[in-house]
Amino acid sequence: MFASQTKETSKMPKQKTKSGAKKRFKLTGTGKIKVAQAGKRHGMIKRTAKFVRNARGTMVLDESDAGIVRQYMPYHRRKRRKAASTPTATV
Fold first, then answer.
1. What are the pLDDT digits (tens) for 67-84?
2. Helix, strand or coil for residue 22?
3. Would residue 31 count as lying in a domain?
């Protein structure tokens, strides 16, 4: 028999992450979506210094937008919190 015939196959196909989403978005430790600030690709001359300064770094997406992004990234779900270990009493 061929190796492909003896191998068990999964019943459902794997979901794919959108390649554009995995390049643009990251998850924080609490499960929120982190994204770079918009509006800094070109045209910095006409922007105010305050705008350029405030647009540095990253921001956290609003939950309404984050829900859309989570659909694009099926395997980047919130991490489960570990249960607090209870100390066992020793006699």
1. 999 999 998 876 555 666
2. helix
3. yes
User: Considering all CA atoms of the chain, what is the largest pairwise distance in Å, rounded to the nearest integer?
Assistant: 73
Give domain status of residue 21, yes or no: yes
* Residues making up the chain, counted from first to last: 91
Q: What are phi and psi of 51, to 5 degrees?
A: -65, -45
Token pair 């999964």 is at which residue?
10
From 22, 45, 47, select the one nearest 33 (Cα to Cα): 22
Tens digits of pLDDT across the chain (91 residues)? 555 566 677 688 889 999 999 999 999 999 999 999 999 999 999 999 999 999 999 999 999 999 999 999 998 876 555 666 666 666 5
Number of domains in the chain: 1
The pTM for the full model equals 0.65
**Alpha carbon 65 to chain centroid distance?**
12
